[in-house]
Amino acid sequence: AASMGVGYAASLVHQSGIAPHVRSVVRTDAHGRLVRTVVVSSRLIAPRVVERVGEPGGNASPIRPVAESDLTIPELVESTAKRYDVDPLLVHSVIQVESGYKQHAVSPKGAQGMMQLMPQTARRFGVTNSFDARENIEGGVRYLKYLQSLFPDDTRLAIAAYNAGEGAVWKYNNQIPPYRETEQYVLRVGQRYGKARREAEKKQANLQAAAAKPSSPGPVYSPVQYFVDEDGRLHMQTVEASPESQSSEPKTF
Fold first, then answer.
1. Gyration radius from the chain CA atoms
2. Where do the domains of the chain lie, and which CATH numbers do they carry?
3. What long-range pairs does 64-70 form, CB within 8 A, spacing at least 24?
4. What is the pLDDT at residue 214?
5. What's residue 5's pLDDT?
6. Under a CB-based contact definition with an 8 Å cutoff, are residues 171 and 143 in contact?
7. How far is CA 104 from the centre of its chain?
8. DSSP assignment of 208-221, as one string?
9. Among 248, 246, 241, residue whose Cα is nearest residue 217
10. How far apart are CA 86 and CA 224, in angstroms?
């Protein structure tokens, strides 16, 4: 009877679609008789999240594990930013101002990690551990991408919203909120971002110039020429052709 009870209980849980954990416990009842009790516990499953990344009013889809555990911080920034179509230079500029790349940084207001995510923002963009570099960077990049979609014509507003929240930007009619901290934040991130872009453009221009520069042609030799002078000595002469000259001294044998 006990085994039938176990089987029946297991079948009910199986039909529910929840992975069960079934065990049988033997104990004594009030009359001192041994009885067997079936204990069934279900494995908890996290609720499925259906909102899109960055959609307000709920959590974003959880960040999926990726094979990036061995990447350096610059490589993580580069790969994550490109995946969400955000300029990696902007992400680096935000990180520099937010935490100086300190993975376990915590602000007085409770913002955490390299990109200084507030707990509610972290949950909103699928971050479960803000002190994990990969999760923090991905959550921060997701947030930046969302803000850029709200303010596509002015990167400064996206930067301001990253600091003060998009609601503050809307409150002041799509202007940088007149908060000293936010104004200084936009200035500092903007300066770093502008400098990084100028350096990147200069480097790219140098690479293109080097690739376009023709290589110097090597020397071209004519066939060896032999002649005998009036004293009966044999001479050998080669003519080296170059952009500057096509002469050489003869060698005497």
1. 36
2. 2-42 (no CATH), 73-204 (1.10.530.10), 220-252 (no CATH)
3. 66/134, 68/134, 69/134
4. 74
5. 44
6. no
7. 18
8. HHHHHSPPPPPPEE
9. 241
10. 63
User: Any idea what the Cα angle at residue 154 is, between residues 80 and 102, rounded to 5°?
Assistant: 40
**Using the 8-state DSSP alphabet, how is residue 128 labeled?**
S
Go through the chain and tell me how many residues it has.
253
Residues with catalytic annotation?
98
Q: Write the CA distances from 183 to 118, 152, 172, 178, 217, integer angstroms.
A: 19, 19, 13, 7, 57
Question: Does residue 185 contact residue 160 with C-beta atoms inside 8 Å?
Answer: yes
* Average pLDDT per block of 10 residues along the chain, 253 residues long: 43 42 54 57 35 44 55 95 98 97 96 98 97 97 98 97 98 98 98 96 92 70 62 61 50 49
| β-pairing verdict for 20-28 and 225-228 | unpaired
Cβ atoms 63, 139 nearer than 8 A: yes
Specify which residues 221 forms β-bridges with.
240
